[in-house]
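User: Can you help me understand a structure? I only have the sequence.
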Amino acid sequence: MKSTGLVRKVDSLGRIVLPIELRRGLELEEKDSLEICVDGDDIVLRRYQPACVFCSSTKDVFVYDGRNICRSCVEALDKASKEE
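Assistant: Let's start by predicting it. Here is the structure, written out as tokens:
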């Protein structure tokens, strides 16, 4: 992991501010989603990519009935339902 040398304090509401230089460098825009992960004692922020609940693919994912499903799994489910 690469250190940026940037240090920020957590405010009373538990928030931190990502400096504009970092956001520009990573092309983070307002309203972009970040995933919060924990690795031992480390907190890792990464760009959120929705994944399919069945196969974990991040390609061609859309939300159906509140769940992320990829097009491949929809096609497989459709094929399986026709075989019944």
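Now, to help you interpret it: Strands lie at 34-39, 42-47, 61-64, 67-70. The chain is about 25% helix and 25% strand. Let me know which part you'd like to focus on.
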